Structure formats: C-alpha cells, structure tokens
Amino acid sequence: MSYDIADPDLAGQGRARIEWADRSMPVLRQIRERFARLRPFAGLRMAACLHVTTETANLVRTLAAGGAQVALCASNPLSTQDDTAAALVREYGISVYARNGVSRAEYYRHIEQALQIRPDFVFDDGCDLVNTLHMARRDLLATVKGGCEETTTGVLRLRQMAADGALEFPVVAVNDTDTKHMFDNRYGTGQSTLDALFRATNTLLAGKTVVVAGYGYCGKGLAERARGMGARVVVTEIDPTKALDAVMQGYQVMPMAEAAPLGDVFLTATGNRDVLRREHFERMKDGAILANSGHFDVEIDVRALERLAVAVNRQVRPHCDEYVLPDGRRLVLLVEGRLVNLGAAEGHPGAVMDMSFADQALTAAWLVRHHDSLAPGVYEVPAEIDEEVARLKLASMGVAIDRLTSEQEEYLTSWRSGS
C-alpha cells in the first residue's frame, strides 16, 4: 500500500472522528454491513477523488467492506482533514493521497497517484479525475467500466463531455438524485456554509444584508439559513424561473451590479465563473465579506481583486484575507475564494452525507451489475435506489409513512375510473 499524507501519527484522532461521524450515518452503516456479507466489489479496483473528510471515510470503508481495493485522493486542496487521511491509511488500510493545503501541481500529482491503481470504477467530485483520465491518462481508459459524479459542477462538465462525444464510459450523476440534491445541496450547504462564515469571521448576520448568487438547491439552502439568522437576503440569478421562485419566496431579486453596494456578505453558489468581478468589487461597501460555496475557485474573480487592491493583509483572521482598495475600503475574502464550507469548516454534517453516500454506494453496486449494457454517457440514478435510501433514512429517524391501499393503487394505474 502506498500513500502521501501529512502525519500518520494523527491516525488515532482521525479514527475517533470517523467513528463519531458514523453515528450519524445509519443508512450507510446498514449498507456497509450488507456489502460485507455480499462482497459485490470483490476483486475490483476503485479510484476516488472526493473531499477527504470523516464522512467520505465512511463511504470508503463501505466500498472496502464490499471487497474493493480503493485509492483515494482529494477533490479540493483545502478540504482534506489530515487526521482523517491518516486514519484511513493506518487504521483501515486505504491508499490515500491527500494533504491539506497542497499546491495545484501536488493536487494533480495526487490524482495521478490514485489512478496508478488502474481503476475499474471511479468516483469523482468535480470531474477532475475523469478529466485527467481523458486528457492525460488515456492509457487507462480501457479498464474503466463506469463511474459516479457527486457534485453539480462535475455533472455540468460531464454532460458537456458527453455532448461533445468525448466521454469514454458511463457515469451516473449521483448529484441529481432527489435524496442527494434536495438534502445535501440544500440543507448541507446551507448549514455548513454559515458554519464556515461564523468560524472564519465571527460576524453577526442579524440585521445584515446577505447576497446569494444562484438560486439552485445550494442557493436555496444559503438563503433559507441566512434569513433564519435574521439577515435580509438578496438573490441574484440568470434563470428567470429560479428568479421568479426566489421572488415568490419573499427574497429581493436584482442584478449583481445593483446588489453589490447593498451587501454585507456575498455567497456564491452558481457553478459558473466570474460571478463576482471587478465591476462589483468597485461598488462594494467597506468590510464586505466574500465567500464561495461553488465547487471551484472561479466564482469570485480573485485575480481581478488582486489587481484592484493596493494592499493585501493576509490572514487577518484564519482563512480571511483583507484586500485594501485605492480609496481605503476593505474587502474580506474567505479561504482564497475556494469552497468555504470545507476550507473554513468541516463540510456537511454526517446526517445529510448519510444519504448522499448511501446513493453512491448503492449506485456503485448497480453499476457493477449493469455497466456492460450502458453506452458511454451520463445516466440518472435508478429510481428504486433513491426510494430505498429515503425509506431507510426515514426508518432510522423513527418516522413511518402511509402505504397505498390496493384500491388506491388500482385508481392510480387505471384510466377507466372517472371523477
């Protein structure tokens, strides 16, 4: 087993935190016990490029329990929990290539190291591993039978690859299943982003104006939680339907150029680049806080901010860089514009990642059974997996729901019954 981690001696601390997260992940734990009995991945090699956190560790443990040989690298240079990486290596025997704060070159070197396993299946969070396979390691494509993608940004990239005829194997868009995006994206991103904001800045949201860029599921979660903390929330959007939804939820909706001078806190969650750029920085008030909850560090145009600033006060607080503009105004950028909820906090709570990673695990087992019948392309998670995860989660929470009677089932499946 090979690995590249920061400090193997952190393994004991990491194991304790992994086990703590596992307490909040009963659905994944049930699946892990099932996989340990059935061994659906026996003899298979899996490469995963995911956030190396305690919750991810429990997914990797589940794949390994099913018989897989797993190699894990990080999907973000700042999200790795070094104690978690150490525990995966020392306590669970997983090959991990991840250290917090690595350079861009080291980040891609770790992806290359994870691919040395010559994977049969891949797991990605942002499409960097899949992109590396297609751009730099095409010699490995022949062995890859399929993959899963965890996040909105990655799915967007994969669909474009498929549209261009470039994608060489089937990939399941786990992000798009209801038990993932309705909960992970909305409740997970909402809570973990504000958690990161509070840890980094200790700011009070009550009475402040929070500008949320993007009103997809992540943006909905950000807006809901900020409003719940007493903030005035402004939403910016390019999609008229989503903008209309935000208006009818009671939020102010306007272009970013109009929101720029109003906001005390700016949170981006669009999956696109340059959402906050020079023309907006020039209009922002002194002390405005800028944070990104999109996967890649392109939503805030940091280079434009650097060119505009006359001075940069690094680490005025942990994870906070202060950019001083020519007129003396100061803008505070969190975690270099990278994914704030994992750079300044611990990411989503285990209870919500329980569903996302249950989707991943069950989809992996489905892919193993069905990959031979799938052409290269992007696929949805089968509906029965989504429903199983939801039912298991409800059961773990002690919640029961109704079932259709035979008469109701007949009514729903027959066109002969009138009103």
Task: Name the features.
419 residues, Rossmann fold, 2 domains, eight-stranded mixed beta sheet, hydrolase, cytoplasm, EC 3.13.2.1, NAD(P)-bd_dom_sf
What does this protein look like?
This protein is of the alpha/beta class. It has 2 domains: 8-180 and 350-396, Adenosylhomocysteinase-like (Rossmann fold), CATH 3.40.50.1480; 187-343, 3-Layer(aba) Sandwich (Rossmann fold), CATH 3.40.50.720. Helices cover 44% and strands 16% of the residues. The chain contains 17 helices and 15 strands. An 8-stranded mixed β-sheet has the order 9-8-7-10-11-14-13-12, covered by helices on one side. A 7-stranded parallel β-sheet has the order 3-2-1-4-5-6-15, with helices on both faces. Helix 8 packs across helix 9 (217-228) and helix 8 (178-201) runs antiparallel to helix 15. Its EC number is 3.13.2.1.
CATH architecture name of the largest domain: 3-Layer(aba) Sandwich
Overall CATH class of the largest domain = Alpha Beta
Provide the structure class: alpha/beta
CATH-defined superfamily of the largest domain:
Adenosylhomocysteinase-like
Summed up, the domain count is 2
The proportion of residues in beta strands is 15-25%
Counting H and I runs of at least 4 residues, what is the number of helices?
17
Shape: globular
Q: Can you tell me the CATH topology of the largest domain?
A: Rossmann fold
